[in-house]
Structure formats: C-alpha cells, structure tokens
From TrEMBL:
<keyword id="KW-0689">Ribosomal protein</keyword>
<dbReference type="GO" id="GO:0003735">
    <property type="term" value="F:structural constituent of ribosome"/>
</dbReference>
<dbReference type="Pfam" id="PF09784">
    <property type="entry name" value="L31"/>
</dbReference>
<keyword id="KW-0687">Ribonucleoprotein</keyword>
<dbReference type="GO" id="GO:0005762">
    <property type="term" value="C:mitochondrial large ribosomal subunit"/>
</dbReference>
<protein>
    <submittedName>
        <fullName>54S ribosomal protein L31</fullName>
    </submittedName>
</protein>
<dbReference type="InterPro" id="IPR016340">
    <property type="entry name" value="Ribosomal_mL60"/>
</dbReference>
Amino acid sequence: MFGPFRATNPLSGGLLWKIPWRLSKFQKRRHRLRLRAVDSVVATLDAALAKKGQTLEAIERWKAEMPVEEEMLPRDKYTMFDRKEKKYRKGIHSMAVALSFSMLNFRGTIADAGGFARIAKVDESFAESQPSWILNAG
C-alpha cells in the first residue's frame, strides 16, 4: 500500500534494478585492486614455479596474452565486449557474472595442475615472504 515497503509497480517506474551507466570512483578503485590481486597471484605462481625450474602452460599463456593492470587502457579495464550492445562494449559492473566465468577457465586449468595451494607451497622459503591467505587457500 503506502510506506517504504510498498510493492513496486514496474509499469510506472521502468526498470526495477537500476544500474548506473558509469562506475563510481570507488567501484573503479576496487576493480583496479582486484586486477592487481590477479597480477600478484600470477606473479607469485610464476616465481614459485621458476624457483623449482618448472612452468605451467596456463600461466605462460596468461602472461603472453593478458596485460598487467598498469598497461591496460581504461576502455579495457572498465568495459567488456558485448555483441548485443550498440558500440559492442558494456560496463563491467553490469556484467559481474561474465567476469567470474572468464576467470573460471584459468582457475580450472590451475586446479587441474594441482590447485593454487599446492603450487604456491612449492618452496617454503618463498612462502615466508607471501601473504598467508594465498598459501592457506586450500
């Protein structure tokens, strides 16, 4: 009826979930931090495997194809390709599910090779300089 918890009428209000077309500066900062966290995980795994004289095809492919956060253009940081959009780009904040699926293949490849925890624990002396949450993931 009336009050703060009344039912919404979609005919009068338009979209029920309104997603702003622009990311706020706080959302951009959190996204940059997430990108840097991915870069640090890849660097940690690469360094740990290099100490053992090993390599992983998925990490080598990631390093060859994916730029680090500092090298990315803002257009690539904050938008993703979407063939249904007018200019073929869509903001990342409206495609959260797509981001998690894009990382799924990379994570699945590492999991097939022994998982994050096993690869990160390759060398115990290297583990002392890394954050504990990376090593205790499994």
